[in-house]
Amino acid sequence: MELILARRNQFDNWHKVAGSGWLVASYYGSPKRNRAMLTGSDLLTKVSELQAQNATRTDIVLACGYVKPDGKASYVAFYEALIEAKTPQWKSQRIKEETETHLEFDDEEQEEKFLELCENYPQEALEIYYENIGNFDDFEEAYMGEYDSEAHFTEEMVANFSDTQIPSWIVIDYQATWDSAMRFDYWEEDNYFFQNM
């Protein structure tokens, strides 16, 4: 095997010569080509492997393909890609840690949707909906909110649908309105109301 002196950005297989700015590259080492920059899980895997080998930051950046045209490491592009690759993991992991549920999901897609919806809706409402419907496909459209009672929900719906001000001397039995009409278009459990889809 023949050894040659080379700069770091010239060869893939190289070894640093202690105390110098030069590297020893294997004769069989291939000259660097313009590699595709690693992203997502590929980037995270490669970074983990190189960190386990105690590689320097510059070596990691270059090995992951973040090289400027002049052969120098492109730190900004590398760290932007690294943050982008880690963000969904951090977010998903944080939500999973904060969200304990008794639900058992049939597929990973429904679990991810559940975790996503937990950021904006009450977890209990999501659990009730999933137990009754079996998926979250129409949850955002179906969810009407949390109300103290069927009568309170009906009163809010009447107020939202009606453009006219109902005179104060008119008395409406909102519970009877729910019982005779609204219950066919909406359903309720534990004070969470949903529209039938």
Secondary-structure map:
Layout: E1 3-6, E2 14-16, E3 23-26, H1 40-52, H2 57-63, H3 75-98, H4 108-117, H5 123-133, H6 139-142, E4 143-146, H7 150-161, H8 174-180, E5 186-189, E6 192-195
Antiparallel strand pairs: 1-3, 2-3, 4-6, 5-6
What does the model show?
By secondary structure, the protein is of the alpha+beta class. Among the domains are: 1-33, no CATH class; 99-195, no CATH class. Helices cover 45% and strands 12% of the residues. Strands 1-3-2 form a 3-stranded antiparallel sheet, with no helix packed on it. The protein has a 3-stranded antiparallel sheet with strand order 4-6-5. Strand 5 and strand 6 (192-195) form a beta hairpin. The termini are far apart. Residues 1-7 and 23-33 have low confidence and may be disordered.
Spatial order of the strands forming the largest sheet = 1-3-2
Task: Write the H/E string, N to C.
Answer: EEEHHHHHHEHHEE
Let me know the average pLDDT. 80
Quaternary organization: single chain
- Rg computed from alpha carbons, rounded to a whole number of angstroms: 30 Å
Could you describe the largest sheet, including whether it forms a barrel? 3 strands, antiparallel
CA-to-CA gap between the ends?
72 Å
Q: What's the tally of helices?
A: 8
Structural class by secondary-structure content: alpha+beta
Q: Kindly state the percentage of residues in helix.
A: 40-55%
Low-confidence stretches: 1-7, 23-33
The gross shape turns out to be: elongated
Strand runs, count: 6
Strand content: 5-15%
